[in-house]
Specification:
Structural class: alpha/beta
CATH superfamily of the largest domain: Glutaredoxin
Shape: elongated
Number of domains: 2
Helix content: 25-40%
Order of helices and strands: HEHEHEEHEEEEHHEHEHEEH
CATH class of the largest domain: Alpha Beta
Distance between the termini: 46 Å
CATH topology of the largest domain: Glutaredoxin
Number of helices: 9
């Protein structure tokens, strides 16, 4: 639905200022993060309560004008079971307004990527208990895939990813998800996916500022991110890996 799309668009990449208490919001509710909403597929239903920061009710008829103005940040409050119950629209800062304006007018999620940034190191365990540290792969090519099992585009592209794994034996392919380890293991019983799998790892997802899935990164032999794409760009990945191996 349009409302859900715009809510997530506004929340993504915006630094939520403080967990300020609003007395008109039940203490049983908490401020939901973007990752929490994506992970739990939080839905914005028509009965959700909407307020300004003073507790005044916002009617559905006012919603489009508020969101399209770019002057307000939606703070979504939900239950411990990840059910959204209320939204507060607070005034956006100057920086947030600029970010929202840029995202509202951006049609290509890959447009602003600049090559050459050093990939942040991480250490984690795969679902089979193998320890992985990115720094240990310096001098080699590493491909990262951010995904989750209920993401249909993520699942649809897996056969293509497996072909890359088979083609490039000297490249390390790692998948990273917020899904539980048991969820990934269950998925792999019916889906062949030949990456090394890291599950339950929100910190890596946050460090790599991933808010759309699937996201693919290629890290070159110097540890620099030279490719970052959201969506199915497998052929382009294939070409880029081939070029790196010839250098």
């Amino acid at each position: 639905m349009k409302r859900i799309t715009i809510f997530l668009l506004l929340i993504a990449n915006i630094s939520i200022l403080s967990a300020q208490e609003y007395k008109f919001i039940s203490k049983d509710l908490h401020l939901m993060t973007e990752v929490e909403m994506i992970k739990n597929q939080v839905q914005m239903t028509n009965d959700i309560l909407m307020f300004d920061t003073k507790g005044n009710t916002i009617e559905p008829s006012q919603l489009n004008d508020i969101m399209e103005s770019g002057n307000f940040v939606p703070l979504v409050y939900g239950t411990k079971n990840h059910i959204a119950k209320a939204v507060i629209f607070r005034n956006a800062t100057k920086e947030e307004k600029e970010k929202m304006k840029a995202r509202m007018h951006r049609t290509d999620p890959n447009a602003n990527f600049v090559t050459g940034k050093i990939a942040k190191n991480f250490t984690a365990y795969t679902i089979d208990g193998t320890k992985i540290s990115l720094k240990d792969y310096k001098g080699k090519i590493v491909v990262l895939n951010f995904w989750f099992t209920q993401c249909k585009p993520c699942v649809m592209e897996i056969p293509k990813l497996n072909k890359l794994v088979k083609k490039y034996k000297n490249v390390t392919f790692i998948s990273i998800t917020f899904d539980k380890k048991e969820t990934v293991k269950k998925f792999l019983k019916t889906h062949e996916f030949n990456y090394k799998h890291i599950a339950e790892n929100d910190p890596i997802i946050d460090d790599y500022q991933t808010s759309a899935f699937p996201t693919h990164l290629i890290i070159d032999q110097k540890g620099e991110i030279i490719f970052r794409k959201v969506g199915d760009f497998i052929e382009e990945m294939d070409t880029k890996i081939g070029q790196l191996l010839k250098q």
